[in-house]
Design brief:
single chain; 11 helices; 2 strands; 76% helix; 2% strand; MetI-like; transport
């Protein structure tokens, strides 16, 4: 028998009817059946002989990765610098495109419902496609290199930044906007003095957070030819140079830790 709270804050007992109890039982039964069905599908499509041997194969792979070939590290500084540039320039380009899209998508700043629908479509389209898929498409169009990686990161960032920013715009306090509008200010003046000051801290935090995410995503874009340290990672894996792969993993890990620390400090300073 569940307990609910009255508006006065006192607990009250709420009795379930027989119909409600049966619906709950049927819901749990349907969930269990769905779980068993999914497990059967996964089991039928899994080669368990490889799973049984996974422990031995994993330990063998780790033994090949140790000790790391530290002399290979000097060849990774250039690709790692490219990775940082892909993440940083891609984030800046994504911010430049997501900023106006967010204002067009927000319910309280969009000039027309059709414009808002188009802006939301842009945001959803960007969020629905992973940056690795964007990179594959752009490498086919632009050819391999850093430019494809930068644009892939930017296209992926539009949806993330745009969604969080337009939600922040919709949650602003309406009083400053109404006060500025009452003085006869134009639409752009209302935006500049009533909306922007309220959303800029959130916008800065979102941008830094997205840059931190893009550092991680840009490390793998080279696997499809979009530049960065992923190119060296792909080459090392293809040549079975596992002691070089371990060096790349360590460098990626240290870079991600550094970006996490920097983004946390910047967000703390801003917010």
């Amino acid at each position: 028998m569940p307990v609910s709270t009255t508006p006065q804050g006192t607990p009250s007992w709420r009795l379930h009817t027989t119909r409600t109890q049966w619906l709950q039982y049927l819901g749990w039964l349907a969930g269990a059946c769905l779980f068993l069905l999914c497990w059967k599908v996964i089991s039928d499509n899994t080669m368990w002989v490889f799973v049984e041997d996974a422990g031995r194969q994993g330990s063998d792979l780790i033994s090949r990765m140790l000790p790391p070939q530290w002399s290979y590290a000097h060849r990774l500084w250039g690709p790692m610098w490219d990775t940082l540039n892909i993440a940083t320039l891609g984030t800046l380009l994504g911010i430049a495109m997501a900023f106006p899209v967010a204002f067009l998508a927000a319910r309280n700043t969009s000039p027309h419902p059709l414009v808002r629908s188009a802006a939301l479509l842009v945001i959803v389209s960007s969020r629905s496609i992973n940056s690795l898929i964007w990179a594959m498409l752009l490498v086919t169009i632009l050819g391999p290199g850093v430019l494809a990686g930068i644009i892939a990161i930017a296209l992926r960032s539009i949806g993330f930044i745009g969604k969080l920013l337009y939600e922040a715009i919709e949650e602003i306090h309406p009083t400053p906007v109404e006060a500025i509008s009452a003085t006869g200010a134009g639409r752009m003046q209302v935006m500049g003095y009533g909306v922007l000051p309220q959303v800029m801290p959130a916008f800065a935090g979102i941008s830094v957070y997205r840059w931190d995410i893009n550092i991680r995503e840009s490390t793998v874009l080279g696997l499809v030819g979009a530049g960065g340290i992923g190119l060296q990672l792909n080459a090392a894996i293809n040549s079975l140079a596992w002691n070089q792969v371990s060096v790349i993993f360590v460098m990626i890990f240290v870079t991600v830790l550094a970006s996490e620390w920097i983004s946390a400090r910047v967000r703390h300073a801003i917010i």
